[in-house]
Specification:
single chain; transmembrane; MAPEG family protein; transmembrane helix; globular; 9 helices; mainly alpha; membrane
Length: 168
Amino acid sequence: MDEAAVGLSTVRIRTRISAYVYGNILVLTAIATCTPHMVETGFAALAVAATTVTTYIAHVFAHFVAEQVGHGAGEHESDQDELRDALPIISSGSVPTLIFLIPPLFDTEGTALWTLLAAGVVLLRLASMGALVAHLNGELPSARAHWWGIGVAFVGLVIVVLKVWIAH
């Protein structure tokens, strides 16, 4: 991995990608559970924003707890590093939250369209992982990398369907 290109260690990059994928899957789950009434009234935006923020807090807290295990030389991470490494979770929910603010603020029709748009943004973010991983490995994005990204989005969608089916 070309660490110099991004200025981060491989561990930091992997941590951020993990938070990105995890955040997108949980935001997509929140989107999938939004009803038309929630979209019309703005509660969909609140649900996605709340899911985003609480996932970020839970992620940072879990990492803080894990950091209590003994440290070897040079292993200690700063709290600021963890706060930054978890920011992809926040980015996962920002655009869908803004999309869900449009119907109640501008009294628009077509709640299904807004839900599909919000979900599409998240699926596109997951599908972009193929190109990003190729880039971080110093490769040009190939057809294989793009298909791998589509596979990531598909697996994320399957996880969301299972989560909604089992838990909701």
